[in-house]
User: Fold this.
Amino acid sequence: EMILGYFSLNALMIIPAFTLNIRELKGLNHAMMWATIIAGIIFLIFPAPIGFARTTVAGQWAGFYQNLYSVDNVANTFPSLHVTFSYLFSRVIIHAHKKLFYHFWIWFLIISLSVLLTHQHHLIDIFGGIALAEICFRYFFLRAINE
Assistant:
């Protein structure tokens, strides 16, 4: 069932369009762009393969896993972009709407657990994703909205 948490990043990425102002959206786009570029450089220079065999899933969740495996490269695990993006989106939404604090941190934790429990990442990938997201939040998002 954790595959649902994994794919819930897609829903999380829609929420800013309805909750942020234009300046915040531009800041988020800027931060996402740089997070993707930085992660891509890390993937290229230090390819980090998954340290375990992929699981074969049968039953109701098999389609989700087949979809995931068809687009996923097993050497792009550090940092986890799932964690980077979910942390960045949660952090930005919470920055704009303090009252949503618990909702989005719980969602972020579910996504972080899902990358482990779907055997896509290791703990170090999660910590790398958080670090990259926090750097991009502070340096690119906050800078963009304060200009």
